[in-house]
Here is the input.
Amino acid sequence: MSGAPPSRAEALTRLTADLRAAGIDTAALDARLLLAAAARLSTIDLYTWPDVPLDAASHARLAAMAARRLAREPVARILGQREFWGLPFHLSPATLVPRPETEHVVEAAIAEHARIVAGRDKSAQTGAPFTIADLGTGSGCIAVAAAHELADARAIAVDLAPDAAIAARGNAVRNGVGDRVSVIVGSWASALADRCADLVLSNPPYIETLDLEGLDTDVKDYDPRLALDGGADGLHAYRQIFADARRILRPDGAVVVEFGRGQAAAIADIARANGLLPRPAILDLAGTERVIVATLL
Ligand SMILES: C[S@@+](CC[C@H](N)C(=O)[O-])C[C@H]1O[C@@H](n2cnc3c(N)ncnc32)[C@H](O)[C@@H]1O
Here is the structure.
């Protein structure tokens, strides 16, 4: 990018073409998001006044962002932010970029919350708040979205990575649920008390270790390995989470976990082996088995 700064429309067209030529499937969307961020405008402004020239600072920011995207850095990493459940989540190198399919965990949690609350005899309630444990919280997306949606719920968000815990805490505050989301550093449920949770939610690492090298550059080089590596068979985290589920769940509670392609049967077996009853897997929008809800027997 050199010479007189282009108009917004010209910059968009050029960047889209450059990204497309580099084989990036989402070229048009990426170009729009990067241009809006570089020019500090909404995408609506870009389309409403397309002929306005980019100022020099915006142009320089866009050139730097374009170079990063052409090197296969994900747009969310370049922007430092990703939307999930309609809410903004800041990212750090220690956090996975939240994926759209993880919203199915939040949807299932909302349905389970309704089932559990409806099944409780009000007169028998202990007064303990409805509590969600989000194990491996990363950016905090699951815990924060669930707390945002369920006004009577509080969440305990756990991550082994201290920097992820810091990001999750910031995202809870940023999204107005800081008073109901506690974040702790620890390994899965090891720091949680007996019978403390109504729901255990998790999107743990599930890639088989030997498959990590074959992942796309966007994932392999930018998402943290701790967020991806599920051990030799990809199921390491599930064994630990389900082993503790009976202990930390209240009797009418449930576990809701996301998993990878082809893992549904193995996850259901792990749930059963730990005394839980798995329901048929929930499909994502691509028709892939993606989430299992398991209740105590
Ligand atoms: C696949 S990422 C999911 C992050 C976030 N929940 C999401 O859906 O975007 C898995 C998360 O588990 C965390 N993790 C890995 N091992 C852990 C452990 N032993 N205990 C707690 N968290 C762990 C990673 O740091 C990472 O944040």
